[in-house]
Amino acid sequence: MAIECLVLGAGQEVGKSCVVVTIGGKRVMFDCGMHMGHHDSRRYPDFARVLAPGATDYTAAISCVVISHFHLDHIGALPYFTEVCGYHGPVYMTYPTKALAPLMLEDYLKVMVDHRGEEEQYSYEDILRCMKKVIPLDLKQTIQVEKDFLIRAYYAGHVLGAAMIYAKVGDAAIVYTGDYNMAPDRHLGAAQIDRLKLNLLITESTYAKTVRDSKHAREREFLKAVHKCVSGGGKVLIPAFALGRAQELCILLDDYWERMNLKIPIYFSAGLTIQANMYYKMLIGWTSQKIKNSYTVHNPFDFKHVCHFERSFINNPGPCVLFATPGMVSGGFSLEVFKKWAPSEKNLVTLPGYCVAGTIGHKLMSGKPTRIDIDKDTHIDVRCQIHQLSFSPHTDSKGIMDLTEFLSPNHVILVHGEKPQMAFLKERIESELGMQCYYPANNETVSIPITQNLKINATEKFITSCCMDETENNLQKQSPIFGSDMPEGCGTEGVAEGILLMEKSKTPKILCEDELLHSLGMEKHFVHLEPLLSSRIEEVKHTGGSAVQQGSLADSGCE
Amino acid sequence: MEEPPLLASTSCATGSVASSSSRNYPDPMDEGPSVSVPGLPFADQRRAAGLRASSGSPEVPGAQVHALASMSHGIYPLAKAEALRGLAAVLETADARGGVLEQCYRCAVELMRDEDEGVRLESVRLMSLCADKLNTREGSAGNSNGDQTDIMFLQLSSMARDMCTKVRIEAFNALGKMQRVSEGVLLQSLSKKVMKPNTGNCSIIKGKKVPPKLLFPCAAGIFAHGIEDEFYQVRTAACKSLGALSKFSTQYAQKALDLLMDMMNDDTEAVRLQTLQTLLHMATYGCLSVQEMHMHMFLGLLVDMNALIRDATRKILGLVKLPKLQMFKSAIDVLITSLEKHQEEQEIYSVLFSVGKNHGNFSANIAKHLAKEITISSDGELILDKPRIKALLIVSISVAFSDDKHNKLDIPEVIFSHAIPLLGKISCAIGEVVDQNSLLSYLCRKTGSPFWETRLPSTEPRESEGCSVTTVVDILAQIEKTGKSTKCLDEVLTIQSIKFIIATVERAWTIRKSCNIRDVRTILRTCKEELRIITSNSSGSTGAFLSFLCEYLDAVQFIVEILRSVQLDNSYDLGPTSLDVLLEKLNTSIRRMECCYAGFNTETEVQVCELALLSNLFRLSKQRN
Fold it and tell me: Which residues belong to any copy of the Beta-Casp domain (chain A) (predicted)?
């Protein structure tokens, strides 16, 4: 028996996560994402590969689809798969993912299809129809998908509602991590999972080689820069994505404002952010411990220092802090504000750690430009200060190692990362943790052998005899020498002899030699071999017929 | 065979253990029946037996440990956890020398990777106890086995990244209790980046058969993780351990400080307070060296909204040594800001004083600048009551108490004279080291104050004034002993003003011959009025003293009047200014002094008698006239 793992996406790259795992006849698809970098057929995973040659029915080919979280590279292809490809089986995702996924998908359609006029693969109606098929999951809730096939979600951090998925078919068990974060944020907790007996761990490896320094230092620098700017009368522009980073930074600022008793207003530009805040307020159960604790007194997403915002406020004098979308200053409101505020050296722009090449955010990060041309006619004089702040919700290399060490699976598969870094991490996992590790490319299959376990019963007497030996062994081995050697167990591994009895339609059992006859329902017979005397021959002739040999035992299948 | 096979296995296992052990050691193992239940009661009894065993024969714990160790390999997590707890109980009382420690250690190590978090928790506890015992054993034997401690530290470190919160808390607590850990391992625990073990450590690890998971990396950055933990209990525990371990290595202490500074931005108050406490602990052990990069955070805390945080920060600031004048100045500035915001926090003065005292040369610098400022605005423009000036004066005065001797000469005289009105504040700031009286005399000596100088060549009435001052001081001493600090402050202020009044009266007495009588009269009247205002606010012994003083001043005024009237020989005066009336009034006043106040010391009594004598003399001289 083996676990077959087919990587349809995110193999040696980041984007369109999709892994199909076959265990003991059951087939699970983990994530169903799209690749934002491609505009052709490579945008979606090559679903046809899961089908047997000639077949067209995806519902028969796949037992269930499990989505880890709502990012487009994990969920983007789901409406396509269910509505266009025609998969009608169960789709599982956590409650927050189910709530937020339509927002993300619709936003994507709006930006990509409506604004840029790209060919649309699925429609708004498809999204709605697709979401209707979704079965929501709760954390640590075990769901029996089919007989002998369980799935369970564990908290993964990363974004609101992100989950690690544990799947078990018979004795074989695997964990698919999705994206996760081992260090807690202000608003999200760290990944949390039980110690499970695993055959395979499929983990993301975005930062396979990077070890990040303390988040505290980055926070401190950020707060210092913001405080300095506003106390000098400047305005702070924080371009941020609507979900996650905006809330994270706002919690940080709100807390600092409270402690330092600052009275400067913080604004949120309207739109998705405010809508997202509403969801955060509702989904408190999925946030960090601190927020859950303080929720009883005050909902931390009701920011105390955040004020109502209107567009005309951009021109108001005096210091303020403004969160505006989009995060990379690629257009929209954050660009509009940037145009107004950039020419003053009192102001500050806080950029995220990563900006796509070609955006203004990217230009600002690479060197300090003094003038940015937006198009032929307009250009901006940039005199404001620029602060770069990376809050990545992915775990780093240390976190991946920690999780792998904690779960101690037999095999590890790396996905969602860059090839050279994955190769480096593979080496580390194999040498330091002694586990088999793979990082297949897209459309490659890895086969993991699993050993089948057989449950056997044991008789009381057999166990007693084992324990006797063991204890006697131990008593002889007193006086260990401390410190000279690492312990190699208490020496409880004794050798015991017994007979394994395997009968058809019964659980096999192990028993002591002298119990055998009883369990077979036979009496004990003795065969006497004596020197042949003429007088004895006569006797035998009289009794006769009781010739059962010990050899008959072999017939009943003893080993 | 009806029983489920798994259950059968444990009950048999324990049964056999018991029977085999009872063969060898029949005495404590006689609790046969309960042994067959592989549950909690058994382990409870083991624990009880463990406690009893402390006085028993040396073999007994061996057998118990053995039984418990076998139980810890069962399959029921609760039973396993209980077995570990039992082992800990036995180990607690057992002699560290036997093999008990080794066996417990082995069990703990084996179960550290258990699937059940309860078992992992107990194994961490047991491990911690083993480390503790090992330490005492080696401490008494004198041969320290650093490698073993390091390995234990690494093993505990590997538990600090457990997924279970309780295990993490326990692991950090255990780490904080470790002794004699080598510096390399300690430093590794702060940095997430795996350091190449230097040659010394390398050889330590190499000679051992260390399992792959227990190499250096497992300690990597556990504290960096710990202080970022989601649960504040873990962060608190990590923070506490950081501080506890920092006394083993200065390099470690420095790096730990960086981590601790970051924790000041923590969102939980309990963690911030614990951080400050840890810093205080480090400062007390002298392993806290504040760098310029920490100042921003530090100063932010001094003006924090939370009073507890401010207080804790100030305590630390009073102990640290700041390497640069700039840092010192900014610290003083922020303390002044905080004083302006929270005038009620009088502790700030004492912090200012100790900060000033710890940095003698920097404070001398402040003193010079302040002296300049005072001289520039000498015409009463400088308002002493401003917190800034008060604070700077206290810092300047503190130079005199600092350790570097040569700085003491640098304090300009003007500082001392301005410090006298702040005597109460300063003496509070200094605390119990110097009493106020000697402080005052010190300040006056430094200033060359006329008050104390003129007192020395004594005429009769002046002597009496001097005496009253002594009485004041007596009472003051009493107050200082009994009074609470805030109340004491009031009293001190009162006494302060009394001293001034007495000084004024004395001066008025000296000028009575040379000046217009009216001036003297006005001075005395004003003094009396002030005294009455003070009297109305005070009670107890101070109040009594004050009313006595009023009476005394009355007497002095009558004497002045009488002398004048005698000098003018103005026997035609009628009404309240006539000599008869004055004499009568003086007499009444003196009598009241004699009768209404109990508990004079000898000198005061002599004084009152002298006054009575004087009054009689006046009377006689009048009759002669």
Answer: 246-364
Answer whether residue B486 is part of any domain: yes
Q: Which domain holds residue B494?
A: 455-624
pLDDT tens track for B214-242: 455 777 888 988 988 989 999 999 999 99
CA distance linking residue B119 with residue B71, whole number of Å: 12
- What local confidence, expressed as pLDDT, does residue A18 receive? 94
Q: In this structure, what token pair is assigned to residue A295?
A: 């929720």
For residues A134 and A544, what is the distance between their CA atoms, to the nearest angstrom?
77
Contact B148 A256 (CB under 8 A): no
Residues A157 and A198 placed together within one structural domain of the fold:
yes
Calpha distance B599→B593 (Å, rounded) = 12
Omega before B217 within 30 of 0, i.e. cis: no
Tens of pLDDT, residues A313-348: 888 888 999 988 777 777 778 888 888 898 888 999
**Smallest CA–CA separation between B390 and chain A, in Å?**
25
Give CA–CA dist A222/A227, Å, rounded: 9
User: Looking at chain A, which residue has its C-alpha nearest residue B150?
Assistant: A483
Same domain, B566 and B618: yes
Query: Mutation test of the interface with chain B: which of A186, A304, A490, choosing the one with the most B Cβ atoms within 10 A?
Result: A490
- B103 and A408: CB-CB below 8 Å? no
Tokens of A438: 């793979």
Cβ separation A289–B231 shorter than 8 A = yes
Same domain, B394 and B488: no
List the domain range (segments joined by +) for residue A383: 216-389
Whether ipTM tops 0.90, in short, is no
Question: What is the pTM for the complete model shown?
Answer: 0.70
DSSP A343-398: T-TT-EEEEES---TTSHHHHHHSS--SEEESSSS-EEE--SEEEEE----S--HH
Q: Are residues A86 and A188 in the same domain?
A: yes
Indicate whether A62 and A166 sit together in one domain.
Answer: yes
3-state helix, strand, coil in chain A (%, to 5): 35, 20, 45
Let me know if A503 is a catalytic residue.
Answer: no
* Residue A508: both structure tokens together: 């096999």
Q: Between chains, do B106 and A183 touch, taking CB under 8 Å as contact? A: no
Q: Which of A217, A471, A487 sits opposite B262 (nearest CB)?
A: A217
Tens of pLDDT, residues B270-321: 999 999 999 998 888 888 888 888 888 888 888 888 888 888 888 888 888 8
Chain B residues whose beta carbon lies within 8 Å of the beta carbon of residue A219 = 262, 265
Judge whether A482 lies within some domain. no
- In a domain, residue B360? The reply is yes
Q: Which of B580, B1, B427 is nearest to A456 (CA)?
A: B1
User: What integer pLDDT is reported at residue A529 of this predicted model?
Assistant: 79
Minimal Cβ distance to B230: which of A189, A474, A487: A189
Do A187 and A237 sit in the same domain of this protein?
A: no
Whether residue A454 contacts residue A508, with contact meaning beta carbons closer than 8 Å, is answered with yes
Among the listed residues A516, A253, A452, A538, the one whose alpha carbon sits nearest the alpha carbon of residue B265: A253
Clarify whether residues B429 and B503 are in a common domain: no
Lowest mean pLDDT among A398-412, B293-307, B373-387: B373-387
Tokens (6 digits) for B265:
């931005």
Are A250 and A152 found together in one domain? no
| Per-residue pLDDT tens over the stretch B434-478 | 666 777 777 777 666 544 433 333 333 333 333 333 344 444 454
User: For B340-389, what is the HEC assignment?
Assistant: HHCCCCCHHHHHHHHHHHHCHHHHHHHHHHHHHHHHHCCCCCCCCCCHHH
- Identify the three-state secondary structure at position B566: helix
Query: What DSSP string describes A301-322?
Result: TS-SSEE---GGGGG--S-EEE
Q: Where are the alpha helices (DSSP H) in A173-244?
A: 215-231
CA-nearest residue of chain A to B216? A432
The closest alpha carbon to A243, from A351, A300, A159, belongs to: A159
